[in-house]
Specification:
By secondary structure, the chain is an alpha+beta fold. Helix content is 21%, strand content 29%. Strands 6, 7, 8, 9, 10 and 11 form a six-stranded antiparallel beta sheet that branches. Strands 2-1-3 form a three-stranded antiparallel beta sheet, with helices on one face. Strands 4-5 form a two-stranded antiparallel sheet.
Length: 298
């Protein structure tokens, strides 16, 4: 072989080997640099305990402690209408701000009382979904405006009657109890034998039966461990026809409430038999060829 060609082949071989080594190193890559130190964890945000619904709550539901729970909520996202426990879990920065926000919200909502206890007995005004914060706009507590309109069953009315300790079972009727409404009035009786004067007897009738007591005076619930409430007015839940019958009864004479047993809460409710229009016996009187119908009440 020509010495020149041999030299060229050797140079080419050396160059190929060198290129292969370079390519191998490039393919293998150089050892990766040590990863940079992990970034410091983001500073934790202040959190506030917010009162939320534990389950879906429908309109008219009466709240208990089992219906609500506390849930951590970013303090910066706490709305002024939320109910909080007045305590925050602040980050090192902004701790005083977080505490101030939580305290102000709790104070505005429930006046500094224990929030979980303050909502017990409240009525749901608008539907509340599970996990949704409890707000004053969606609940009504006793004494709040609009409370009775939420408590009333559909189609029912609220109507008050005057009572005394004597006509109100000595104060042992409490909100939520069921009662019958009785009316007493005087009835004149015709004279008996010839020359005998007419007499007067007292008649008592059941006007309404099994109606619910909504409130006594302005109390919609008895205080804890209270066994009686002496009130001057009882507010009852009645239907439209019941209200008419009750108005007539109040105009005719005093009314008395009788307490029904807890085991006797079922059965018909409202106007008692014989008190609805058309229930009274009718007497037809014919005078001079003209006939008139007169309803008779004993």
């Amino acid at each position: 072989m020509n010495p020149v060609r041999l030299l060229i082949v050797l140079v080419a071989a050396v160059a190929a080997i060198g290129l292969a080594v370079v390519m191998q190193r490039m393919m293998g890559g150089t050892p990766a640099a040590a990863p940079a130190a992990a970034a410091a964890p983001a500073a934790s945000k202040p959190m506030t305990q917010v009162l939320v619904a534990k389950r879906d709550l429908a309109i008219g539901a009466r709240l208990t402690a089992d219906d609500v729970t506390w849930q951590a909520w970013p303090t910066e996202a706490v709305n002024a209408a939320f109910i909080t426990n007045g305590a925050a879990q602040p980050a090192p920065e902004g701790a005083e701000k977080a505490k101030a926000i939580a305290t102000d919200v709790a104070t505005d909502m429930i006046g500094g009382a224990d929030p979980a206890k303050a909502i017990e007995g409240a009525i749901v005004r608008d539907p509340i979904l599970v996990g949704e914060p409890i707000t004053s706009r969606k609940i009504v507590r006793g004494g709040d405006g609009g409370y009775l309109s939420v408590v009333l069953a559909p189609g029912k009315r609220a109507m008050s009657v005057p009572i005394t300790s004597e006509t109100g079972v000595g104060g042992f009727i409490l909100p939520g109890d069921r009662v019958d409404v009785l009316q007493t009035r005087d009835r004149v009786t015709p004279g008996g034998e010839e020359g005998a004067s007419a007499g007067k007897v007292i008649v008592a009738e059941t006007i309404l039966q099994n109606v619910r007591v909504l409130a006594l005076d302005q109390s919609t619930a008895a205080e804890k461990d209270a066994k009686s409430i002496v009130a001057a007015t009882a507010t009852l839940e009645v239907g439209p026809l019941d209200a008419e019958a009750l108005v007539k009864a109040k105009a005719s004479g005093p009314v008395t409430l009788t307490l029904r047993a807890y085991t006797d809460l079922g059965g018909p409710t409202g106007v008692a038999p014989g008190q609805r229009p058309g229930d009274e016996p009718i007497v037809r009187i014919n005078r001079g060829g003209q006939t008139s119908n007169i309803s008779v009440r004993q």
